[in-house]
Design brief:
302 residues, alpha/beta, Rossmann fold, 2 domains, two-stranded antiparallel ribbon, 9 strands
Length: 302
């Protein structure tokens, strides 16, 4: 029954993002692992569509926030306004108080505004005027980012990048997928997509992912990859947060394959998506190259 619901969800998402089954599985694995997702690509590749489709299919409340250079933290978090009838300040929640938040073109906002998401992503709460406000559960941030060489962008600081469990790139569609898109009888309206799972069912699936078994040999393989990342001269090595994220993402990937145990291929499938945005120092291609080099240099001993 569980696997049937997941298969229906994957098929539905593949109708929205044609010809990209791997990217869809990675995005879903990130959510099952309770992680936040960074999607980096050129405009018009389907970044917004896949995030909205995920929220609609999972029955999550959804809010898109368009980041701009003049945006302030209060535009995201909310603001306290004095109520003369109550003779006190009343907090008015911002758009971040949704179960899934799309931070669209996050790198067009200033670093000060970008940092407004740090506490929310790490602790599922925000602090305004000394008062802490809990965010909904489950809570996910999907951020889209334009290539950093485009005009009007601010690079995300390392502390922000490390909050994203995974980073994916959609890329151009294949010839057949783009032809199918052009020949389609009608455009799919994401708002009309049926709900495949409930938020409660999603929470149960996340708990099942936690229970995926990882042997000591597999854990040592993960640690070997992380240790190798810390020897790369042109990049800062993976943090302990990244180590934990790699394990959780691999468990979610194994669960999507219908297994309750990890194999090295699960770690390899998610490693680049977990590592490359943390390892790069100047460009996306550099992060990809370092990640692939690490994978090639460490042999799993099972």
């Amino acid at each position: 029954m569980v696997q049937t619901g997941i298969n229906e969800l994957l098929l539905q998402l593949e109708q929205v993002l044609l010809g990209k089954p791997r990217q869809i599985r990675l995005a879903l694995a990130c959510i099952l692992a309770r992680g936040h997702l960074l999607i980096e690509d050129l405009p018009g590749m389907g970044k917004t569509s896949i995030s909205h489709a995920l929220a609609q299919s999972l029955g999550l409340s959804y809010q898109r926030i368009q980041f701009t250079s003049d945006m302030l933290p209060a535009d995201i978090l909310g603001v306290s306004i004095f109520d003369k009838h109550q003779t006190q300040f009343v907090f008015h929640p911002g758009p971040i108080f949704k179960q899934m938040v799309l931070a669209d073109e996050i790198n067009r906002a200033s670093p000060k505004t970008q940092s407004a998401l740090l506490e929310a992503m790490a602790e599922q709460q925000i602090s305004v005027d000394g008062v802490t406000h809990r965010l909904p559960n489950p809570f996910f941030v999907i951020a889209t980012q334009n290539p950093t060489d485009q005009s009007g962008t601010f690079p995300l600081p390392e502390s922000q990048l490390d909050r994203f469990m995974m980073r994916i790139s959609i890329g151009y569609p294949s010839h057949d997928a783009e032809l199918l898109m052009l020949k389609g009888d009608k455009t799919i309206n994401v708002n009309d997509l049926p709900q495949c799972l409930t938020p409660m069912a999603l929470t149960q699936l996340q708990a099942q992912c936690d229970n995926v078994n990882a042997s000591d040999a597999l854990l040592n393989y993960i640690l070997a990859l992380v240790k190798q990342s810390r020897t790369q001269p042109e990049a800062i090595g993976l943090s302990p947060r990244a180590t934990k994220a790699l394990l959780q993402a691999a468990k979610a990937w194994a669960f999507l394959q219908g297994r309750q145990y990890l194999v090295p291929e699960d770690v390899q499938a998610v490693f680049c998506s977990v590592a490359e945005h943390r390892l790069r120092t100047s460009s996306q291609l550099q992060g990809e190259a370092i990640s692939e080099r690490i994978l090639a240099s460490v042999n799993p001993i099972m």
